[in-house]
Amino acid sequence: FPKPGMAQNLKWGSVLYVAVLAFISFVHQGCLPPDWNFCSCLYVNNFWYSVISDLHTFMGPDLAEQLRDPNSEAFKYFMDPPLDCPEVPETFWKSDTIKFGLSPALIDGSESDLWMVGVRSRITQICMAGHAALLLLCSQHFLLKAAQAEPNSEEQNDALRAFYMHIQTMIPLVYHKQMRSCFPNSPFPLQAGPMVEYGEKWVGKVTQGRENLAIMAAYFNGNLDAFQMMWNYETKKNRKDIFVPFRPCSPFKNRACWKRYAWYTYESCDLCCSPYAKGGYGEAWCWQGPWDFENCCQQDFAGLVCKEDRKGEEGGCVDCPKSVRWQCVTPKEHALDEAIKEFNKQVDERGKLETRKHELVQEVSLAEFDYAAKMDIYDFRWQLWETAEQIFVDMMQRAEKRAVDAAVLAADTAHNFSHARWENALTEMNTADKLHTEAVLALAEAERARNAALFLVKACDTERKAQQHSVAMLELSTEAAAKERDANEQKFASIRHQLDAHRVFVESNETEAQAANATYAFIEDELSSAVEEASFASHNREAILQEAEKIFGEAQERLSNLTARATAKRIALNDSLAAANTTKLLLVEDAKREGSIGAAAQ
Q: Which secondary-structure segment (H or E) carries 305?
């Protein structure tokens, strides 16, 4: 190590990196991170690593041969793949976010917004490269279903239709320039060229326009031969093309180590086999028994610790060249590298401190020089002050100064006396002004009281005249009431006479009614006698009966007339009684009113 005194000039540099066993860098200019593209995916839950492993395991030139054997693993996988294959792939169906339409239009529509982290994160969650792989795998699933179905059956036609739908959807997606450029560094062992070539063999040159769609199928002896339509391209990939973080799990070294879906951290291949783990053999808390780093992880970086160095993304620079570099070394070299970095950091800090020390020494020297100059100025001004003070003392002790002080004292005394007299006079003037103001207010109050008294006198005269007028009016009202009372008494006597006449009329009507009732009873008796006589005289029965009916009719008519007359007289009597009662009430009310008016007049 360098000596402390030389620390600011010596640093440990990149010469120590000769021990690096793996070194990869990727440079990109633009606003996007250099290791992000439209093939980026989230691998932490194992699903996409499982799809990558499926591609490595089953997809190859011998796929058709494997699927002809019903006992093969490939046949079992493609008969019921754990991919939730839809018959019509309309959306990115395995996305954990909003199910966007499965179309390259999503790429075109989002290119202008990729500077936003949220947009890039959403596309990463969709995993477009993974869905391209799913379209290829699902197409083989439906081909196998068509091969197993009855020839020319509806089931076979539906499966074949689903195959074409997956192929037609896959071709525009993988043919897009963004997908073609990102596939080489993607963990998925696929290339756009073979996928487009395979698809267009069966659906036509759709990359040149929808009008070139030409559906094709393979037949043998007149029946569909789906095995001739199976994928027959190589799916191997150069591992050096894959970015460092994805190599340990692309594909799974041992599929028994990992679940297709990881729900816990210790089940995630991406976390457990991470090349960034400090020990160089993954995360120690993931391993137990036979499940260890050697059996479960690809050994690209076994015994190495990787770290990521990103440049150009700090400070928000848009067009700066951006780079990401992965450096993988042994744990000891990693520790040494970290120690060297820390040492260099401390050396830089010490150099800064020593530079600051020299600056402070210079600042102190300048301050001392400035202090000495200011002390000289202070001494000179102190001497001036002492001289001025001596002059002041000498002036204070001269006789002329004392005479002037005596004259000033006498003048101050006279001024103070005059000022005291002036203040007394001012106080008396203010007191007089206050008394004058109070007298003016009292006079104004007295004037208001006199006016109020005059107003009250006028009001009393007006009220007295009104009372006299009221007395005169009461006297006139009393005389009129007396006259009206006499007239009412005469009316009351006349009404009483009319009531007596009506009473006599009613009594006579009742006598006539009693006579009519007696006549009716007599007629009934005569009629009964006539009926009895008629019963004994049969020869003259009809004549007697007619005579009896005639007598009965006359009696009934007479009785009706008497009853109508009695009713009319009774109604007239009731009307007269009601009129008499009304008149009586009016007279009583008039009498009461006259009595109250007389009492008020008294």
A: strand 305-311
pTM, 2 dp? 0.55
Q: What is the 3-state secondary structure (H, E, C) of 142-173?
A: HHHHHHHCCCCCHHHHHHHHHHHHHHHHHHHH
> pLDDT, tens digit, for every residue of 318-334?
667 778 888 888 888 87
pLDDT of residue 463: 78
CA pair distance 189, 200, nearest whole angstrom? 20
Please tell me the distance from the alpha carbon of residue 147 to that of residue 145, in angstroms, as a whole number: 5
**Among 311, 319, 275, CA closest to 293:** 275
Q: In angstroms, rounded to a whole number, what is the distance separating the alpha carbons of residues 402 and 410?
A: 12
Amino acid 580 reads A
Tell me whether residue 276 is exposed, middle or buried, using C-beta atoms within 10 angstroms of its C-beta: 0 to 12, 13 to 18, 19 or more.
middle
Spatial separation of the C-alpha atoms in residues 122 and 106, rounded to whole Å: 11
Does a cis peptide bond (omega within 30 degrees of 0) precede residue 151? no
Most confident of 29-43, 142-156, 459-473: 142-156
DSSP-based helix, strand, coil % in the chain, nearest 5: 70, 5, 25
Q: Quick: pLDDT tens for 278-321.
A: 888 999 999 998 899 999 999 988 888 888 888 877 656 666 77
* Cβ 249 vs Cβ 274: under 8 Å: no
The answer to whether residue 95 scores a pLDDT higher than 70 is yes
Residue 61 in contact with residue 91, Cβ under 8 Å?
Answer: no
Taking the C-alpha atoms of residue 104 and residue 174, their distance in angstroms, rounded to an integer, is 8
Q: Which residues pair with 321 in a beta bridge?
A: 29
Q: Calculate ∠ Cα 211-224-233, nearest 5°.
A: 70
Q: Is the pLDDT of residue 415 over 80?
A: yes
- 22: β partners: 328
E strand or H helix at 497: helix 399-536
Contact (CB, 8 A) for 254 and 57: no
DSSP type of residue 224: E
Closest by CA position to 248, among listed 51, 49, 57: 49
